[in-house]
Design brief:
Helix 6 runs antiparallel to helix 9. The protein folds into two domains: 225 residues, Up-down Bundle (Rhomboid-like fold); 65 residues. The two termini are 24 Å apart. 66% of the residues lie in helices and 3% in strands. It is mainly α. It is elongated, with a radius of gyration of 29 Å.
């Protein structure tokens, strides 16, 4: 329960890096933000036509022509602005938290899901529409990370004391309203797909267990980082615990029925009518009751 009300310091480190550059630990979060910063420089230096950026952003028409890589590369197009830097900062804070929680490999696959599935949803939507809209930017991936963070730590406080679920509700609601105001179907599909992928995906990785209403999908062990042996052992342990609990409850119910019969016999015929075995069981039952009362 404690993880619902607090979370560890994101500056404390602890994430296992993929490699090191000097003294910098290159984790999944750091690598993603580094690519985002690089893309902002490319946007500023490549010229007004943005020829390189246009080759990797999400365009349904281009994907239909066989440029499948756009389903993965579209977040790596970012315009340089103060809001982009703020987005990278938030992504660093929350991404570090989730990567520390999940591990570098599962978190990498989680980010990949947040990229490919929403991108595919927008592409499929574009197949049935005459005009396609260009989609790009890490802000959608950052929104998915924020939703997953709020699912795991719903009451974690953001400045000025607003809980995580409140922040997510406001940001996601405003994005939906903005998409509706400009009548942007692709943007609306992107937002819905990001939210669905973040919630179902994060639950499928084994987190946000308080949100039982969100379905889970069985993912391969190479994605979740949990081996089949560990999963099967956990299932067997859980089944064994349930079996032992059931057997214990049956025994306790049987013992209580026997005590009830002994008490009925005492009420009808007196304490002297009990056998030695019955008296012993009655004394043991009295001791258990006194022990529970003392606890």
């Amino acid at each position: 329960m404690s993880d619902r009300f607090s979370y560890s310091n994101p500056w404390a480190g602890g994430n296992e890096p993929w490699f090191r550059v000097g003294r910098v630990d290159v984790t999944t979060t750091v690598a993603l933000i580094s690519l985002g910063i690089l893309s902002a420089f490319i946007w500023a230096l490549e010229g007004v036509q943005h020829e390189f950026s246009r080759k990797i952003l999400l365009n349904s028409d281009k994907v239909s022509d066989g440029e499948i890589w756009r389903l993965v590369t579209w977040p790596l197009v970012n315009e340089p602005s103060i809001w982009t830097i703020f987005l990278f900062f938030i992504l660093y804070l929350l991404g570090n938290q989730l990567e520390n929680l999940m591990g570098r490999r599962p978190f990498m696959f989680f980010l990949l899901l947040l990229t490919v599935l929403p991108g595919t949803a927008v592409f499929l939507y574009g197949l049935g529409n005459s005009s396609s809209q260009l989609m790009y930017g890490l802000r959608y991936v950052e929104l998915g990370v924020l939703i997953a963070f709020a699912a795991q730590y719903p009451t974690a406080r953001f400045w000025p004391g607003v809980p995580a679920y409140g922040i997510v509700g406001v940001i996601f609601g405003l994005d939906i309203l903005q998409a509706l105001s400009v009548r942007s179907g692709p943007q609306l599909i992107m937002l819905i797909a990001v939210a669905a992928t973040a919630l179902v995906g994060f639950r499928s990785f084994g987190y946000a267990n308080d949100l039982q209403w969100i379905p889970k999908v069985r993912l391969p062990s190479v994605v979740t980082g949990m081996s089949p042996v560990r999963r099967s052992r956990g299932t067997r342990r859980s089944s064994r615990r349930r079996h032992l609990k059931t057997v214990t409850e049956i025994r306790e119910n049987s013992a209580e029925r026997e005590i009830d019969k002994i008490l009925d016999q005492v009420a009808e015929s007196g304490i002297n009518s009990l056998s030695k075995t019955q008296r012993k069981k009655l004394e043991e039952h009295s001791k258990k009751l006194r022990k529970r009362r003392d606890e």
